[in-house]
Design a protein that fits this description.
- It is a single chain.
- The protein has about 475 residues and is α/β, with parallel strands linked by helices.
- It is built from 10 helices and 28 strands.
- It has helices at about 15-25, 45-50, 65, 135-155, 155-165, 175-190, 220-230, 335-355, 390-405, 410-425, and strands at about 5-10, 30-35, 40, 60, 75, 80-85, 90-95, 100-105, 105-110, 115, 165-170, 205, 235, 240-245, 250-255, 270-275, 275-280, 285, 300-305, 310, 315-320, 325, 325, 330, 370-375, 380-385, 390, 480.
- The strands form 9 sheets. Strands 5-2-1-9-21-20 form a 6-stranded mixed β-sheet, with helices on one face. A 4-stranded mixed β-sheet has the order 6-7-8-28, with no helix packed on it. The protein has a 4-stranded parallel β-sheet with strand order 13-12-11-17.
- It is globular, with a radius of gyration of 24 Å.
- It folds into 2 domains: about 5-115 and about 285-370 and about 440-480, 3-Layer(bba) Sandwich (FAD/NAD(P)-binding domain); about 120-280 and about 370-405, FAD/NAD(P)-binding domain, CATH 3.50.50.100.
- Bound molecules: flavin-adenine dinucleotide.
- The site of flavin-adenine dinucleotide has 33 residues, from α1, β2, α2, β6 and α8.
Length: about 475
C-alpha cells in the first residue's frame, strides 16, 4: 500500500501564506490553503483604492487563479475559528450553507495577518476607519467623496470648513500615504470639478503622538517627508495624542494642539472639527490569535521561536503580521518582505522534514532587509535601501517600479501602470464612485472560537462522522464535516 502523503494546512492567502504555498509546489505533501476571502490582496496599494486612483480588482487576485497550476494544493473558502494544537486539527466556519469543516494537519502554517488596532478604544472605529481591507478602502473613499459633495451644497461656512477638514491619525507610512493622497486628491483632482466648495480650501492634518513622523526611517528622510507633505498642504502635528474621536472630529492632548492655525475654534482649543477622520495609528494581530492558547504580546501577536514555530508546537508555524519574531533584540516590522521570507523559510523546513525520517535540526530564520519606502503623492516619496537614501521624484519612481513588480497578475500590472500614467498626465481619477459598501467595524470583532471536536484520530487520519462542536462555541450552522485523508 502506498504511504499516505503528509498534509500541510496553510491559513491565510496573504503575502506569507501564498509564498509558503508556492514554495511547496514540488514538495511531496498535500496542501490545503484556507482563507476567509477568495482573493489575495496587495495591501500596499490599498490607499490608491481609498483615494479613487484604482479599483479593488486591480490590486486583488483570486487565490484559486494564482495557484491553479499547483496540483498538490486545494483551496477552501472559510474562516478558521479554532485550532486544537494537541489533536492537530483546525475548525473552519463556512460562510455559505454547507456546514463547518474540521481538517487535520501534520504541519500548520498560520499567516492570518493583522487588523486595525485602536489601543483599547474600539469605539473610535466607526468614526475613524483604518485601512486594512477592501471594504475599509471603499468606505474611506465613500467618506472622502461624500464630504466634498456635502460641502458643495452647504452655505454655512463653519460646517463647510468642518466638511473640508480631514484628519489622519498616525505618522507611520500608512498615515503619511493617506494624508498626502487626500491632499492631492483635493487640490489637483477635485479642484477642477466642484463649483461652490473649493477643494483647495481643504485642510489635511496628520497627527502623530511621537516626536516625529516615520520613526522607522532616518531622521533626515522623515524631515524630507514633512517638507513634501507641506508642499501638498498637509499640516503635520507631532507630540499630539488623540484622546477622543467622535462625529465632530478629534480631541487632542498635547502641546501641538494650540499651534494649528485655523483649527480648534469654537468648542475648546484641543478639538479639531473634522467630518472625516482616518486611522493609521495602530494594528493588532488578527482575531484568530485570540483562539490560540499560546503567549502573545501587547499587539496580540503570537510569540514565535527562531524557527517561526510556536513554543512547544514545532509543527505549527506563525508568520508575517500575526507573529512577533525577534532577531538580534529587534522585533521584525509588519511588512510584506518579512511575511514572504518567513513563508519561504517555513516551506523549506516542511519540505526538508517531509523528505526525512524524524526531524532534522532547524537553522533559525534570518531576515534580509531590502529597505523601506513611503510615497507621499505624485512624484513625492522617500526611500531607504541598504544605506542609500532617496527623496522626491527618484524615490517615487523607485516606489512605482517596486510596487508594479510585486503586484500579482500581468493584467493588473498593465492596468495599474496605465491608470497611473493616465492620472499622472491628466490629474484625473477613474474610480471616483460613491458606492454603498455595507461596511461595518471589524477591529472589535472577535471570533466565536470553536473547538475542532472529533473522535480520536486513527493512525493519523480523521475518522469520518464528526461530533458536533458545542453550539455555544461555534459561529456557523450545522455539524462539522470532516475530511479524512486519502
Ligand atoms: C495600507 C497598507 C499599506 C501597506 N504598505 C506596505 C508597503 O508599502 N510595503 C510593505 O512591505 N508592507 C506594507 N504593508 C504591510 C503588508 O501589507 C503586510 O505586512 C503583509 O500583508 C503581511 O502579510 P501576512 O501574510 O502576514 O498577512 P496578510 O497579507 O494580511 O494576509 C492575511 C490573510 O489571512 C486571511 N485571514 C485572516 N484571518 C483568517 C481566518 N481566521 N481564517 C481564514 N483566513 C484568515 C485574510 O483574509 C488574509 O488574506 C501595508 C499594509 C497596509 C494595510
Amino acid at each position: 500500500m502506498s504511504k499516505a502523503k503528509r498534509r500541510v494546512v496553510i491559513v491565510g492567502g496573504g503575502f506569507g501564506g501564498l509564498e509558503a504555498a508556492k514554495a511547496l509546489a514540488s514538495a511531496d505533501v498535500d496542501i490545503l490553503l484556507v482563507d476567509r476571502v477568495n482573493y489575495h490582496l496587495f495591501q500596499p496599494l490599498l490607499y490608491q483604492v481609498a483615494m479613487a486612483g484604482l479599483a479593488p480588482s486591480e490590486i486583488a487576485s483570486p487565490i484559486r487563479g494564482i495557484l491553479a497550476e499547483q496540483k498538490n494544493l486545494r483551496v477552501v473558502l472559510g474562516e478558521v475559528t479554532g485550532v486544537d494544537l494537541a489533536a492537530k486539527r483546525i475548525h473552519i466556519t463556512d460562510p455559505g450553507t454547507h456546514g463547518d469543516l474540521v481538517e487535520d494537519y501534520d504541519w500548520l502554517v498560520l499567516a492570518v495577518g493583522a487588523r486595525n488596532g485602536y489601543f483599547g478604544h474600539d469605539q473610535w472605529e466607526p468614526y475613524a476607519p483604518g485601512l486594512k481591507t477592501v471594504e475599509d478602502a471603499l468606505e474611506i473613499r465613500r467618506r472622502v467623496l461624500v464630504a466634498f459633495e456635502r460641502a458643495e451644497k452647504i452655505d454655512d461656512a463653519r460646517e463647510r470648513k468642518k466638511l473640508l477638514t480631514f484628519v489622519v491619525i498616525g505618522g507611520g507610512p500608512t498615515g503619511v500615504e493617506m494624508s498626502g493622497a487626500v491632499a492631492e486628491l483635493a487640490r489637483y483632482v477635485l479642484a477642477q470639478d466642484f463649483r461652490s466648495a473649493d477643494p483647495r480650501e481643504t485642510k489635511v492634518v496628520l497627527i502623530e503622538a511621537g516626536p516625529r513622523i516615520l520613526p522607522s526611517f532616518p531622521e533626515d528622510l522623515a524631515a524630507s517627508a514633512v517638507e513634501q507633505l507641506a508642499e501638498l498642504g498637509v499640516e503635520v502635528m507631532t507630540q499630539s495624542r488623540v484622546v477622543s474621536i467622535d462625529g465632530d472630529g478629534v480631541v487632542l492632548e498635547g502641546e501641538g494642539a494650540d499651534d494649528v492655525p485655523g483649527l480648534g475654534s469654537g468648542s475648546g482649543r484641543d478639538r479639531i472639527h473634522a467630518a472625516t477622520v482616518l486611522w493609521g495609528a495602530g494594528v493588532r494581530a488578527s482575531a484568530l490569535t485570540e483562539c490560540l492558547d499560546v503567549p502573545r504580546d501587547r499587539q496580540g501577536r503570537v510569540i514565535v521561536g527562531p524557527d517561526c514555530a510556536l513554543p512547544d508546537h514545532p509543527d505549527v508555524f506563525a508568520i508575517g503580521d500575526m507573529a512577533r519574531f525577534e532577531e538580534k533584540g529587534q522585533v521584525l516590522p509588519g511588512v510584506s518582505p518579512v511575511a514572504m521570507q518567513q513563508g519561504r523559510y517555513v516551506a523549506r523546513i516542511i519540505r526538508w522534514e517531509a523528505e526525512s525520517d524524524g526531524r532534522p535540526p532547524r537553522s533559525p530564520f534570518s531576515y534580509f532587509d531590502k529597505g523601506s519606502m513611503a510615497t507621499i503623492g505624485r512624484s513625492r516619496a522617500i526611500a531607504w535601501a541598504r544605506g542609500i537614501k532617496m527623496t522626491g521624484f527618484i524615490a517615487w519612481l523607485a516606489w512605482l517600479f517596486i510596487h508594479i513588480f510585486y503586484l500579482i497578475g500581468f493584467k493588473n500590472r498593465l492596468v495599474v501602470l496605465f491608470n497611473w500614467f493616465w492620472s499622472y498626465l491628466s490629474y484625473k481619477r477613474g474610480a471616483r464612485l460613491i458606492t454603498s459598501t455595507g461596511w461595518e467595524p471589524t477591529a472589535a470583532k472577535s471570533l466565536a472560537c470553536a473547538v475542532p471536536a472529533l473522535p480520536p484520530k486513527t493512525e493519523g487520519r480523521t475518522v469520518p462522522g464528526a461530533e458536533r462542536a458545542p453550539e455555544s462555541a461555534r459561529a456557523g450552522g450545522g455539524a462539522p464535516i470532516s475530511h479524512p485523508r486519502p
